[in-house]
């Protein structure tokens, strides 16, 4: 069952939750939910287990049975700097990064990345993908999608970062320490990788150049591999 995002204004004094479209359509048409079915909602602070008590054409009402706080945890926050690639692959990354629990996603313009402009229409679509992925994966805190930035600005902003490069002599584990930073910046390039100039620029900004113990990976596969490795390390 998906986790539906609400605000405190959706919660009534009688411990009921009221929702309208588009969630109403999703619940009644896609999920075919009925009276007495169980739904889960979150306001980012708590997760509410609720039972449907009323469904009308315009409103659904569910009574809160129980609630529990959202686990914030003390883990290092993950910011993913990702080079722009083809639309379908980039959207796949938005989906998987949300499921894995990345906190912030920032598209990068690199020397070998696809030259795609992040129009208002695209940003709206990308945010919708993140929102839907968070709903399906029960993630109460979907990542923030920031505006596209240049590689130069990206590495200048990262005080604690790792950049994937297959020719590096260092593994990720060598540069992960949960006691040293509250934010870890992860830089992943396009299928053409990062240029020599970009590697030197990253090193100048004290970004750690690392590699995964695998074959050379596609960008969308590298995201899954590196984030999974980081999460396993902190677990």
Detail the topology: elements first, then pairings.
Layout (H helix, E strand, L loop, with lengths): L2 E3 L10 E4 L3 H8 L7 E5 L3 E10 L4 E10 L7 E7 L3 H14 L3 E6 L10 H17 L7 E2 L3 E2 H7 L3 E4 L18 E6 L7 H9 L3 E3 L8 H16 L1
Parallel strand pairs: 1-3, 6-7, 6-11, 7-8, 7-9, 10-11, 10-12
Antiparallel strand pairs: 2-5, 3-4, 4-5
Helix pairs in contact: 2-3, 2-6
- Can you identify the CATH class of the largest domain? Alpha Beta
Radius of gyration, in angstroms, nearest whole number: 20 Å
Strand fraction: 25-35%
Report the CATH superfamily of the largest domain.
SPOUT methyltransferase, trefoil knot domain
What general form does the structure show? elongated
Helices and strands, in order, run as EEHEEEEHEHEEHEEHEH
Q: Which blocks of ≥5 consecutive residues have pLDDT under 50?
A: none
Q: What separation lies between the terminal Cα atoms?
A: 26 Å
Helical/strand content category = alpha/beta
Number of helix segments?
A: 6
CATH topology of the largest domain: the name is Alpha/beta knot
Give the second-level CATH assignment, the architecture of the largest domain.
3-Layer(aba) Sandwich
Give average pLDDT, whole number: 89
Question: What is the number of independent domains?
Answer: 2
Percentage of helical residues? 25-40%
How many beta-strand segments?
12
Q: Which sheet architecture does the biggest sheet show? A: 7 strands, parallel
């Amino acid at each position: 069952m998906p986790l539906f995002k609400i605000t405190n204004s959706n919660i009534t004094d009688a411990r009921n939750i009221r929702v309208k479209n588009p969630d109403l359509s999703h619940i009644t048409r896609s999920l075919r939910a009925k009276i007495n079915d169980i739904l889960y909602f979150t306001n980012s602070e708590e997760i509410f287990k609720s039972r449907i008590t009323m469904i009308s054409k315009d409103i659904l009402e569910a009574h809160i049975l129980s609630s529990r706080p959202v686990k914030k945890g003390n883990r290092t926050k993950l910011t993913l700097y990702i080079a722009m690639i083809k639309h379908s692959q980039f959207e796949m990354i938005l989906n998987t990064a949300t499921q894995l629990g990345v906190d912030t996603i920032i598209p990068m313009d690199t020397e070998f990345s696809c030259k795609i402009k992040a129009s208002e229409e695209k940003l709206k679509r990308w945010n919708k993908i993140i929102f839907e992925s968070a709903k399906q994966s029960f993630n109460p805190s979907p990542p923030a999608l920031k505006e596209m930035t240049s590689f130069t600005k990206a590495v200048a902003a990262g005080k604690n970062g790792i950049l994937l490069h297959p020719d590096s002599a260092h593994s990720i584990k060598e540069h992960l320490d949960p006691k040293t930073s509250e934010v870890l910046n992860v830089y992943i390039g396009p299928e053409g990788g990062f240029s020599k100039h970009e590697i030197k620029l990253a090193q100048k900004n004290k970004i750690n150049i690392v590699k995964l113990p695998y074959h050379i990976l596609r960008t969308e596969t590298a995201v899954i591999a590196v984030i999974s490795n980081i999460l396993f390390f902190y677990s």
